[in-house]
Design a protein that fits this description.
The complex is a heterodimer. By secondary structure, chain A is of the alpha/beta class. Chain A has seven helices and 14 strands. In chain A, helix 3 packs across helix 4. The longest helix of chain A is centred in the first third of the chain and has 16 residues. By secondary structure, chain B is of the alpha/beta class. Chain B has two domains: 172 residues, HUPs (Rossmann fold); 122 residues, Rossmann fold. In chain B, helix 3 packs across helix 4 and helix 5 runs parallel beside helix 8. The chains are: A alpha/beta, B alpha/beta.
């Protein structure tokens, strides 16, 4: 079985994340780029399949600038067998539709039984890629799953929605997405880090994938930085703080 | 006026899952709102009348035996059919877990572009311009699609209901959904709203608790203040991870993003990921015993003190003012 895990490099949510206010694109110098935590969980789900059955092959795939290699190396250190980096200057600022088309072409050319993605990235937060990719590939999508169960022919799991919980399954090949309820990604051990350097990391371009540039595109019109919030009143409770707060709320018509 | 489709989520038994009035009003501001529902055969008539009351000029009812058994594919097929039927220029879908799946499929199916997580929409000539609140509200970004069909996921709770009641034109079609490339739903457990408290993302006031509450049985303090203020209950990731409250109460980068008039943080340090989910609140109040907690950097009114002594006094003070 071949499992392709989608990896996205994102700005660390522990740091200050910035947009370039001229282009609307991410200011990649402003914060440390890391592998998105949700992708580590997606990879963990795949690696657990590999733990149970050594014949499972796990391929990490990322579309991104040259720095995305670091995210793929991390995936290899965690235990992925190979990595594929879709790298093309023309992909800077690619929208969801284009990203889906490109990843779809890369996944289709690689071949797969299962694609595992995160349910939403911490930077874009669109949360549509997995289902859009499934539509592009003509397969089932089983999204927002906490814990995956995979047998030879199907995948199943429980998805939590705003309205309850849904138990669902899909025949392979399929695309699934993992949520924060999925197990945390394992830490790479020393052996993993050393062997990651020797594992294959292929770079492919759009020309090699044969992806054209068609379809509607969303573009940024304007970007405005919100003025930073400033701290207001801060008091140390001397027994009257609650009363003062109640008066503050009342005077601002909040209670 | 171009036709704007609004997807309306329904339960397996055909009831509306949330109030679509906000999304219908957003559509009415940029065109003619067409509500689209996908239901099991025979259960569509009941919702059509309600959708008219909420402002839908047209209601497109796609009836499919697999409406409640296939994941997202019947809904995407219904929207694709409705887009052709009404020559729609845009499709609005509430950005819920199910809604985003439907949007993803529809984008690929229509060759459309996606405007994700819109908090406002306007028409600029022929273009539709969406406003997005990015990185927890640190940036406001406007985006558009120059040419071609547009699918918009709208942030739940972001749009006010402003539409007048309409008497909708109703069209019912039988939808033959192909299930060969779809996940199959085995069972659904609908969570009934067990509390009388407002829904987190729509509440005018949110009271959230964090690590400082210290234990599951102490988290009730958060609920008591919430009830005194008629507020929704939120939580930091620490409180959710500790199992004190279900994860659907989590506010932050990986939980719900809220923008209430008043946000009260109890025993929450204010990690950057938490602030990303609440810093667009109009007024922020923080109570924390750690004077250096970063939550105070964004608080309009901060109290350095013990939540277990301040909050009960606050509840009494609120009661005496009401």
């Amino acid at each position: 079985m071949k499992i392709v895990v989608l990896v996205k490099q994102v700005p660390d949510t522990f740091g200050e994340r910035k947009l370039d206010t001229t282009t609307g694109l991410l200011d990649r110098d402003a914060s440390e780029p890391i592998i998105d935590e949700i992708n580590e969980r997606a990879l963990e789900a795949a690696l657990q399949q590999k733990d149970a059955d050594k014949s499972v092959e796990v391929v990490a795939l990322s579309m991104g600038p040259s720095s995305a290699t670091d995210a793929l190396r991390k995936a290899l250190a965690m235990g992925a067998d190979r990595a594929i980096h879709v790298l093309d200057d023309s992909l800077a600022g690619a929208d969801v539709a284009r990203t889906t088309a490109v990843i779809g072409a890369a996944v289709a050319s690689e071949g797969f039984d299962l694609v595992v993605a995160g349910n939403e990235s911490t930077d874009g937060r669109g949360g549509v890629l997995a289902s859009s990719l499934a539509e592009t590939l003509g397969v089932a999508a089983l999204t927002s799953i906490g814990e995956l169960t995979v047998d030879g022919t199907s995948v199943s799991g429980v998805r939590a929605t705003e309205y309850g919980t849904v138990t669902a399954r899909a025949d392979l090949p399929a695309v699934v997405s993992a949520t924060e309820r999925a197990p945390e990604g394992r830490f790479p051990n020393f052996k993993g880090i050393m062997t990651a350097k020797k594992k294959p990391l292929a770079t492919v371009t759009l020309a090699e994938l044969g992806v054209g540039d068609s379809g509607a595109r969303s573009t940024v019109v304007s970007v405005a930085e919100r003025p930073a919030r400033t701290a207001g009143v801060k008091i140390v409770d001397d027994g009257t703080a609650a009363t003062q707060l109640a008066e503050f709320l009342a005077s601002n018509r909040l209670i | 006026m171009p036709n704007i489709l609004v997807f309306v989520e329904t339960s397996a038994s055909g009831e509306l899952r949330s109030n679509p009035a906000g999304a219908l009003s957003a559509a009415a501001a940029i065109g003619t709102p067409v509500a689209v529902v996908t239901v099991s055969p025979g259960s569509g008539a009941a919702v059509a009348d309600t959708l008219g009351k909420l402002g839908a000029a047209h209601v497109f009812i796609a009836e499919s035996a697999s409406a409640a058994t296939l994941l997202a594919t019947p809904q995407a097929a219904a929207l694709a059919a409705a887009a052709a039927e009404y020559d729609a220029s845009a499709v609005l879908i509430e950005g819920t877990t199910d809604g985003r799946d439907i949007a993803g499929r529809l984008v690929a199916r229509l060759g459309a572009a996606l405007l994700a997580d819109a908090v406002a929409l306007k028409r600029d000539g022929d273009r539709l311009v969406a406003t997005h609140s990015v990185f927890g509200g640190a940036y406001t970004v406007e985006s558009t699609v120059e040419d071609g069909p547009v699918v918009v996921t709208v942030r739940p709770g972001a749009f006010e209901a402003t539409s007048a009641t309409a008497t909708p034109a109703i069209k019912t079609v039988a939808l033959d959904a192909d299930g060969s490339a779809s996940a199959v739903i085995d069972s659904v457990v609908e969570e009934k709203a067990v509390s009388s408290r407002p829904e987190l993302r729509e509440a005018k006031t949110v009271v959230s608790g964090g690590r400082g509450l210290g234990a599951a049985d102490k988290f009730v303090l958060v609920e008591q203040l919430a009830d005194a203020l008629g507020a929704a209950v939120g939580a930091s990731r620490a409180a959710v991870d500790a199992g004190w409250i279900p994860s659907n109460h989590q506010v932050g980068q990986t939980g719900t993003t809220v923008s209430p008039d008043l946000y009260i943080a109890l025993g929450i340090s204010g990690a950057i990921q938490h602030r990303a989910g609440m810093q667009t609140a109009k007024t922020i109040v923080a109570i924390n015993k750690d004077a250096d907690a970063p939550i105070f950097d964004v608080a309009d009114f901060g109290i350095v003190g013990d939540v277990f002594s301040v909050v009960p006094q606050l509840i009494d003070a609120v009661a005496s003012k009401n």
